[in-house]
Amino acid sequence: MASPDGAPHTADAVGAPPAVEQVKQAAKEQQIDPYNVSGGVDENGNVTAIDYDALRVRFNTPALTQEHLDRFERVTGKPPHRLMRRKLFFSHRDFDKILDYYEKYGFFLLYTGRGPSSGSMHLGHAVPFLFTKELQDIFDVPLVVMLTDDEKFLYTRNKNQGKITKGAALGDFIEYAKQNCKDIIALGFDLKKTFIYTDYEYMGGHFYQNITEFEALLTNNQIRGAMGFDGSTNIGLNAYAAKQCVAAFASSYPTLFGAGDFRAPNYEEARPRKHIAAIPTLIPCAIDQEPYFRLLRENCDRMEFPAPKTALILSKFLTALQGPGGKMSASDPNSAIFMSDTSKQIEKKVNRFAFSGGGATKEDHEKYGGNPDVDVAYAYLSYFLESDDELKEIEESYRKGTLSTGELKKRCIKELQKFVEAFQERRAKVTDEIMREFMTPRKLEFKGNPNATASIEEAVTEKKPEEKQENTSGKLTKGERKALKIAEKKAEKLALREKGQAGEEPKAEDA
Ligand code: TYM
Fold first, then answer.
1. Is the Cβ atom of 327 under 6 angstroms away from ligand 1?
2. What pLDDT was estimated at residue 48?
């Protein structure tokens, strides 16, 4: 079948677009968890689009509403990112509470991650990172990025029934993590506020204490229920969830907040600090990761040093090129556009594989119009095209049939090439040294909310009980310095008044 302008029409490759009725019927059969993302299959064997409303109901996560967007704008003074405006980030947990905390204390911790399953990330993986970068810029807060080389190693070995396969030895995942780290840096994160780590390198100290404590709170049954594992799943993968969960605790990274960690040669900081554990976290990610964070939220307050329930902001999936029933997947190169693809490859993939919502023939398309709701080129534009006006105009003309599938694909190709080319230019400049700087644990520098009513220092500086009564360190505490300044000012004023009363002119050196 040919598209209206003669470009290859992809409906043949993946079957006809799903009818709305079919989507509803099949919604209960879709499978979404950290290791499986697929739409349902209808009675005719067609894969149906992921039903996000049904998913929200199943996961019990509230919708992100216009009120949230308005409040975001009020609190930050900045308009919400296009991914939020277009409800591609569509659901959340406790987003309101994070805004409350930010209004009062002026900061929180951002946390997101990537499972390095391949040397290059694809466009879908870039989505939460693009969004996270924008949040980091707007809120001016610290960010941790977890690269789960251990998870991907355990998962792949499990999938291959314990066998080592080509490109899936432990060392391969360590290498993928480094390459992905450079990809993430090239998306523009601010070094001063960002710590990126791989699990194999960083786990230890307070982080590892948090892991074992969290492992003690989770049962096999809970993990099997949330992840779809069974008794034959390797024990490493069963235990992994605790790692991804406690990575959300600020107390897993004391160094970033200027405190000591339990790592050689520093053995004094034996346990995490309560006040750091109390810093709340916001996680931007696609909704496949939600099962981890449900376990996290259920158990935050059972830790010895409890953390507030972690807030989430959840996105839909950038669909596979083949259509809205699946997500881009690194294991199927024809389903995805990689950040390492050339402009030519992007053009070829979109033209050849991108599922089209266009009419079956040129005449049909012009008569009945196209359907942007299932059209992959349109879907990609909705993620990457900044102009709301242009997107609307594209949608309307496609529905009317005045914009052809070929023209729509062309516009999409142009936008993706622009994004990927600019990315590749930045990526080429990310040296090993730059990567190491991002991966070095250090005190992060961030300013947070300038209108907050309490200072960041107050929120993250713990006063030891003895300091509150008597400070014997020789150094003044913040409170003491403030009190001293006030006392000095009062004394100055008093002195001036006394001089005035006594009728004395201030001497030159007093002026
Ligand atoms: P991973 O590598 O599968 O995915 C990385 C991030 O990309 C999101 N994602 C997508 N978003 C939009 N469209 C897609 N097609 C698409 N595919 C993947 C994922 O939701 C994720 O946000 N276990 C995790 C790594 C991890 C993590 C985290 C992720 C560790 N800690 C905290 C998010 C937040 C993983 O394998 O992600």
1. yes
2. 87
**Considering only CA atoms, which residue is closest to atom 9 of ligand 1?**
125
The answer to whether 441 and 145 are in contact (CB under 8 A) is no
Mutational test site, ligand 1, from 33, 37, 114, 159, max ligand atoms within 8 Å of CB: 114
Q: Check pocket membership of 112 for ligand 1, CB cut-off 6 A.
A: yes
Joined together, the tokens standing for residue 350 give 């979109």
Greatest Cα-to-Cα distance within the chain, rounded to the nearest angstrom: 102
Question: Given this model, what pLDDT does residue 508 score?
Answer: 32
Tell whether ligand 1 has an atom less than 6 A from the beta carbon of residue 197: no
The pLDDT value recorded for residue 333 is 84
Instruction: Give a yes or no: residue 336 inside a domain.
Output: no
Whether residues 435 and 361 share a domain: the answer is no
CATH no. for residue 347?
1.10.240.10
The alpha carbon of 177 and the centre of ligand 1 are apart by a number of angstroms equal to 13
Tokens of 382: 């909705």
Which positions of the chain have pLDDT values less than 70?
Answer: 1-28, 463-511
Same domain, 238 and 187: yes
Question: What is the model's pLDDT at position 163?
Answer: 95
For residue 356, give the nearest of 398, 414, 402 by alpha carbon. 398
Say if residue 381 is in the same domain as residue 433.
no
